[in-house]
């Protein structure tokens, strides 16, 4: 209770200069977060260096809420790799394993056909691809999973399923940043 | 400086940092494991071998697959995903990899296995290049940790050949 009382007191004693300083600090924090994110994108060579697992199609290895670290090198795509790809009509990236590879001879850039399947699915991913699409090519693939952290991404799933929590959290953080004494 | 808010914040930050360091160490400890897996594959029978109406070749075979992957498991291993791929080269494609069978090994006790199976996934070529084709049977595995870096490796077994004619 004392904590809320302190916050209300400090809210009353706020002056313009102090408020501006708080705003700049907040801006610096957001910018540094953005810089780190963009740096990660450069280092890993992938559009999304970290993804959250959203479906159960790769269980028991990856559960909903796990975080995957991605990397997109120049190495060729081989069977067994866990890749993240986007299908044209869907906005959520899919994380599945490559089960078939057909790579064309001597082409530059490399021409490769790839078929994927979720470990926990019975059928391969042809039903997920765009109508008439039998294979994935290199341009569809956004990255390869190289490491993972369990459970950490569950916060993202909760925030997507119950959007109110997202606003409450951001509101509370903003309030905290403005009313803190330093 | 000593309010509840500051103390809770400091505690939480410290706890999360320690947790992250522990995850990194757990993953790093996997590097000290030097595995020595073994494997053997026998093709017992070519069940059928035909050219499909759409022009692609397809073959169905029965195989014995045996392997000992116990040395891959560490305390930080959640499961090992193992699959057998037929790998071959054709005139048009420099590499073809077709997964024929896969399985999940959840614990060290199940890592030494011997199975008798037909191919789980269809062995289909892009085109009609499978007659008398030499191919390798490669056993691939993917070690999935409880946290951290994933490792993958394989054993290549050469010397397999598909029949000369459809049957």
TrEMBL record, chain B:
Keywords: Endoplasmic reticulum, Membrane, Signal, Signal-anchor, Transmembrane, Transmembrane helix. Residues 1-26 form the signal peptide. GO terms for biological process: protein targeting to ER; signal peptide processing. It is a single-pass type II membrane protein. GO terms for cellular component: signal peptidase complex. Pfam families: SPC22. The keyword Disulfide bond does not apply. It comes from the Eukaryota. InterPro entries: SPC3. Its main location: endoplasmic reticulum. It is found in: Endoplasmic reticulum membrane. Essential component of the signal peptidase complex (SPC) which catalyzes the cleavage of N-terminal signal sequences from nascent proteins as they are translocated into the lumen of the endoplasmic reticulum. Essential for the SPC catalytic activity, possibly by stabilizing and positioning the active center of the complex close to the lumenal surface. Belongs to the SPCS3 family. This is Signal peptidase complex subunit 3. It comes from Cynara cardunculus var. scolymus (Globe artichoke). The lineage of its organism: Eukaryota, Viridiplantae, Streptophyta, Embryophyta, Tracheophyta.
